[in-house]
Amino acid sequence: MKKALLLIDLQKDFCRGGALEVRNSDDVIETANRAIKAFVKNKNLIIATKDWHPAGHKSFAVNSSANIGETGMLNGLPQVWWPVHCVENTPGAEFHDRLNRKNISKIVYKGRDTEVDSYSGFFDNGRKNKTDLNCFLGENEVQELYIMGLATDYCVKYTVMDALKLGYKVWLIEDGCMGVNINPDDSQKAVEEMKKNGVLLINSINLT
Ligand code: VGL
Ligand code: ZN
């Protein structure tokens, strides 16, 4: 069974000093580098997603006359309003400086349509359009995914849930995720939901 490591949104804007800072997210970069090392050694694929929004993206509170952190509706879908983050081709959308990106063989961009948010690496939140991730995995005969990154309660959760629905065997690298936690227990709840749907948990120290 072919395996791939899937690194979710390890971008500056989600790390220390970023526009949508996730607490303790810098620790996740060290975990990513450890996981990358194991996957390189075993000649398995390494894939990364990037949240990649046009400046006019409607998930940004300023573009929807909304308040940051509140929930509303965007084109018929529930939407959390975010600060401006991960604007395409800006420094905040780049990978964290310490991420060892040399062996990343594929980058999947998501969130490019101004009208819909896209937490999952596979589909937008309305499930109308897909990225090229599932095709890429199929072409490379990958059936088993090891997923980690930012944020546990949004992009990691949505990506894991879609991967499970698409029939992949999915591992969550538990020490490789951190959450936004608008409510303090959001990440904990997200992990419970992923487990209920069949995700398996692994610690990065057991990636050999
Ligand atoms: C994310 C909120 C908005 C994430 C992306 O990567 O989890 N969260 N855009
Ligand atoms: Zn975003």
From TrEMBL:
Pfam families: Isochorismatase. Its EC number is 3.5.1.19. Keywords: Hydrolase, Metal-binding, Pyridine nucleotide biosynthesis. CDD domains: nicotinamidase. One of its GO terms (molecular function) is metal ion binding. InterPro entries: Isochorismatase-like_dom (IPR000868), Isochorismatase-like_sf (IPR036380), Isochorismatase_Nicotinamidase (IPR052347). Residues 4-202 form the Isochorismatase-like domain. One of its GO terms (biological process) is pyridine nucleotide biosynthetic process. Pathway: Cofactor biosynthesis; nicotinate biosynthesis; nicotinate from nicotinamide: step 1/1. Belongs to the isochorismatase family. NCBIfam families: PRK11609.1 (NF008623). This is Nicotinamidase.
